[in-house]
Specification:
The complex is a heterodimer of chains A (160) and B (702).
Chain A lengths: L3 E5 L2 E5 L7 H8 L18 E4 L2 E4 L12 E3 L8 H12 L9 H13 L6 H7 L10 H16 L6
Parallel strand pairs in A: 1-5
Antiparallel strand pairs in A: 1-2, 3-4, 3-5
Helix pairs in contact in A: 2-3, 2-5, 3-5
Chain B lengths: L7 H5 L3 H4 E2 L6 E4 L9 H13 L6 E4 L17 H28 L6 E4 L2 E4 L2 E6 H4 L51 E6 L7 E5 L1 H7 L4 E5 L2 E6 L2 H14 E4 L10 H7 L2 E7 L11 E9 L11 E7 L2 E6 L4 H12 L6 E5 L11 H14 L5 E4 L2 H6 L3 E2 L2 E9 L5 E11 L16 H4 L31 E9 L5 E2 L6 H18 L4 H7 L4 H14 L10 E8 L6 E10 L3 E11 L6 H20 L5 E2 L2 E2 L17 E6 L15 H16 L10 H9 L1
Parallel strand pairs in B: 2-3, 7-17, 15-16, 18-22, 20-21, 25-28
Antiparallel strand pairs in B: 1-2, 4-5, 5-6, 7-10, 8-11, 9-10, 12-21, 13-19, 14-15, 14-17, 19-20, 23-24, 24-25, 26-27
Helix pairs in contact in B: 3-4, 6-7, 9-10, 13-17, 16-17
Classes of the chains: A alpha+beta (160), B alpha+beta (702).
Chain lengths: 160, 702
């Protein structure tokens, strides 16, 4: 496979995986970024969600070979952005998790959500979270933490 | 805690150095045999230990579990961690603090009563003495705990009762905290070739064609156990696909399960036992008799993470990393199957995703161990696929619960007979004399379990868990038909409690109707236990039970006590029937005794409600032939964000009561409240789960 260039969390990467591999595998095994998780490899649970050019995408079935020129953000990047730090603080304050396995994908999705100012309604948040599963039952806390984050970032309350 | 009686784990393991370390300045390391899987146990135990040691929580480092040179506290199950390990933490603290106070008093030439410990430092009349845990150091840990100790009396609760943030949660927002993130240099990945059905034997293996196709991969074989080993998981999976095509099996004929699991359950061979030998007498004439059968299907654990284990056989020791709930039993079972002395197997707990019972963690550990034994010196990683999670891991048991009860003309329950038919709720490693690990019978058919067992009544019961009504019900009889089949079932959160409380509370609603009484008042009239009555009254207040439900909704109520000795919980559910059953609001009251961490407790109760709602509305394992059908989330849907109700929870009861485990208290009452609400709405008793769209349509068109 030819080498290709893309950006991960602001740093340039030149990837030349010897075999085809998914973006999840590449992030975890080649770059050592373990925050992006594998839950199903079927694009159904959301544990693998990253931002690709600002859009939340399941990474488990995206071949690295299709990513030339793309900019990828993983959960590890949240610490270095203002909105990301708000989210991390709110998830901590709300203790928004139990086992925590689903949270990294949800945090990335939430980052995209809080960055868009147009629609902070609960309905919009529910639609955003459609691709995410939580099995432990932390849903109410997760919603509350994201709503509080959206409010803090955008300066107004989430509408019902 | 008074001096005299040591908590049993301390009697069995009295060497202080097993439990405690003072090696780091300003920190006490406390070792526990309990393990964390998202339930917050390490945080709660940290709080108990901090108070017992008179330390700030930041000075306590709670470490969890290994099998070697570590306390053995059995399994982390059954909502017993706070009830069993809480006293251990208190005892350790009292003993160590007592020793420190004795040592300081002796050195200072004062009476021990004028001294106290704060943040690990000994004070006299409030002033520092220069003595602390770390100055005394190892001198405190030399002699075994025993009758010569003078445990210090309990100090004021400084941390217990506060909502200390989870000590492990923040790290889980990002990478590195889970077993799935563990890596070793030159690690290899293994994928196991599973037997197509239990009892299958390898007939032929075309190794030449396999090796021609995958020259870089290895195959490992031991008996009928085979696995591929590759440099990456992807390479190992690709080789596994080829291996599957190149191996032929002799598979025994096994009956299909079919679409009607309740019918299948009724046909399976079973061992009948009597749990409560009340007379099987007819009801008095004039009594109204009601009989009904409630049913819950097989349920999958369906954790978001994948079962995972690492194993490394080096220097004659097999190291295994696992997210098992019971690493000691796992160690023994692995040792038996691979043929090592138990001492030569060291199991280290590493945290996995949510664990709701006996899942695939132990199986994955044996998988990794077997490959590691075949590849000495090489660290081996096994991670299951979503397909294996849903089709190979143990399932939650299927149950049917038949209750025949009678109410007399005065509206008093006069008779209550329960018959439960169920598959096993306990096939954990080591039980019933077998390893009970998935790959074990492939290695050697002698490891195949022939007849399943279930937890004895005196240990809380499996299928019969929480089957004794909390109410005064007159004469009682309880019998069990325990089924053995080729479908592997074991412990899933709350065990038989979920189906039993569903059934009991459904029957209570039936009898209340017959007696012409309000469902909640009828229950109160039959509740002798004031704690149960208090919990029920609180949820009635919270939900304004006597008032009007929101437009277009119906309410149902459910009350239960986990294991008949554990926490009390009552739930009211407000339900609307749209294209599916929608649960809009839930109110929940809980008496869990002393609450160690209120926010953690709330998280467990509400998480239990949401998970139980998913079981109630959506979940059933469906079969293709004799095997589970679903290989992914589409075939096994669970509750989504948009289906989660708003939940209000209150804790009631005196904090002077001992703390009770909370992880399994809310599931049964939630199911009951929802089923009772739907029953009211459709005008007939709902007795079969899940209450999915198909079943709702059938109910509405009947």
């Amino acid at each position: 496979m030819q080498s290709l260039n893309f950006v991960v969390n602001g740093s340039s990467c030149e990837a030349a995986p010897s075999d085809p591999c998914s973006l999840t595998e590449y992030l975890r095994d080649d770059l050592g970024l373990k925050g992006t998780r594998l839950g199903c490899a079927q694009e159904k649970c959301g544990a693998c969600v990253v931002l690709i050019d600002g859009q939340p995408r399941h990474s488990c079935q995206i071949e690295v070979g299709n990513l030339a020129g793309c900019s990828i953000q993983t959960v590890e990047s949240l610490e270095s952005t203002a909105e990301g730090r708000v989210l991390l603080a709110q998830f901590d304050a709300h203790q928004a998790g139990q086992c925590g396995f689903c949270l990294s994908g949800i945090l990335v999705r939430a980052l995209a959500f809080v960055r868009q100012r147009e629609d902070g309604s609960r309905g919009a948040l529910l639609r955003a979270l459609e691709g995410h599963l939580c099995r432990c039952g932390a849903h109410p806390r997760i919603m509350a933490a994201i709503e509080a984050s959206w409010q803090a970032v955008n300066g107004r309350k989430v509408s019902a | 805690m008074t001096a005299g009686v040591l908590a049993p784990p301390l009697v069995a393991q009295p060497d202080p150095a097993t439990w405690l370390s003072l090696a780091s300045s300003d920190r006490v390391v406390v070792r526990t045999g309990k393990v964390e899987y998202g339930q917050g146990v390490l945080t709660a135990l940290t709080q108990i230990a901090a108070d017992a040691l008179c330390l700030d929580t930041g000075q306590v480092e709670l470490q969890s579990a290994h099998t070697h040179a570590w306390p053995n506290e059995g399994f982390t199950v059954g909502s017993t961690s706070i009830e069993e390990s809480g006293p251990v933490m208190r005892a350790l603290g009292s003993l160590l603090r007592g020793r420190l106070l004795q040592a300081a008093a002796q050195a200072l030439g004062v009476a021990v009563q004028v001294l106290e410990v704060r943040a690990g430092r000994v004070l006299m009349h409030g002033e520092p003495t220069g003595w602390d845990y770390w100055r005394a150091g190892n001198s405190l840990l030399v002699t075994p705990f025993g009758p010569q100790d003078s445990p210090a009396p309990d100090g004021a609760a400084a941390s217990v009762g506060l909502s200390l943030p989870r000590v492990d949660l923040r790290a889980k927002f990002s990478g590195g905290a889970f077993i799935q993130d563990l890596e070793f240099p030159d690690m290899r990945h293994a994928v196991v070739l599973r037997q197509p059905i239990r009892g299958a034997r390898i007939k032929a293996f075309d190794s030449q064609r396999f090796e021609a196709r995958h020259p870089a991969a290895k195959w490992v074989r031991r008996g009928d156990f085979m696995a591929c080993v590759g440099e990456s998981e992807r390479a190992a999976r690709a080789a596994h696909e080829t291996l599957r095509a190149r191996v032929q099996w002799d598979a025994p004929q096994v009956d299909d399960v079919g679409d009607d699991v309740q019918h299948w359950l009724g046909k399976q061979p079973a061992v009948e036992t009597v749990a409560i030998a009340g007379a099987d007498a007819p009801a008095a004439s004039g009594d109204q008799v009601v009989e009904a059968t409630w049913f819950r299907p097989f349920i999958a654990h369906a954790s978001i993470g994948l079962s995972c284990s690492l194993a490394w056989f080096k220097d004659d020791v097999l190291h295994v990393w696992s997210h098992s709930q019971g690493i000691y039993a796992l160690r023994d079972a692995i040792a038996r199957v691979v043929g090592l002395a138990a001492d030569s197997v060291h199991v280290h707990h590493a945290q996995g995703a949510g664990c709701y019972g006996h899942n695939g963690a132990d199986d994955a550990a044996l998988d990794a161990a077997l490959v590691a034994m075949a590849e000495p010196g090489v660290p081996i990683r096994v991670q299951w696929s979503r397909d294996e999670e849903l089709r190979e891991a143990p399932l939650g048991a299927t149950m049917s619960v038949t209750i025949r009860a009678a109410v007399d003309p005065k509206g008093r329950i006069s008779q209550w007979q329960t018959h439960i038919r169920s598959t096993s709720h306990l096939m954990r490693p080591g039980w019933w004399g077998k390893p009970n690990l998935l790959a074990a019978p492939a290695v050697d058919p002698q490891w195949q379990t022939e007849r399943d067992g279930d937890i004895p009544e005196e240990r809380g019961g499996g299928a019969t868990r929480s089957a004794r009504p909390v109410y005064a019900v007159g004469s009682q009889r309880l019998t069990l038909a325990l089924v053995t089949s080729h479908v592997r079932t074991s412990a899933l959160r709350s065990l038989g409690t979920f189906a039993n409380i569903l059934a009991i509370e459904g029957m209570m609603d039936e009898l209340a109707e017959r007696a012409g009484q309000d469902a909640a008042q009828f229950r109160l009239a039959h509740l002798d236990d004031p704690r149960g009555a208090a919990v029920l009254r609180r949820v009635m207040d919270m939900s304004d039970w006597g008032g009007a439900a929101a437009q277009g909704t119906v309410r149902g109520i459910g009350l239960g006590r986990y294991k008949s000795t554990g926490a009390w919980c009552a739930v009211v559910a407000e339900v609307a029937l749209e294209s599916e059953v929608e649960v809009r609001r839930c109110w929940c009251s809980v008496d869990g005794g002393l609450i160690i961490n209120p926010d953690g407790a709330r998280n467990q109760i509400e998480g239990g409600i949401i998970q139980a709602l998913s079981w109630t509305l959506l979940e059933e394992v469906r079969f293709e032939g004799p095997r589970p059908l679903a290989s992914g989330w589409e075939g096994y849907p669970i509750l989504r964000f948009g289906q989660v109700p708003s939940i209000q929870t209150e804790f009631v009861g005196a904090n002077e009561n001992p703390p009770l485990g909370l992880g399994e208290a809310s599931q049964g009452p939630l199911a009951a409240a929802v089923a009772n609400a739907v029953s009211r709405a459709v005008g007939q008793r709902v007795t079969q789960l899940p209450l999915n769209r198909d079943r709702l349509m059938r109910l509405l068109t009947q």
